[in-house]
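U., I forgot to send this yesterday:
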Amino acid sequence: MPALQVRDFPEDLYDDLRACAAADDRSISQQTVHVMRAYLSMRKRKQSDPLESVVAIFDEQAEAANIDPWAERIAYRKALFDEMDELPLLDVPKGFPDSADLVREMREERMAAVEPKRSSAL
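Result:
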């Protein structure tokens, strides 16, 4: 198996690597291989599909921590929705503008502000 020697390795980076290795119950060598493998894997995926690489990294981290990330997220969201259900309903006064109309108006204002800049840049 090949050996790797890194000269002038920054001390602060080495300390961080040692702390990560201790937290993950690995030797510094094992942690270095793990980090390099994860980075190179991410880099390969990043070249193909960025969204896929983000999901894969999330899954890898969850797998390393022995947790089911989707179950945790679902439970968090359910608790959030339960909390929202407990909030009182708001009485919207008559004549209050529709939210879709407000969004449309803001979008038109933004486009009007952007269009002169866009046409002058051409």
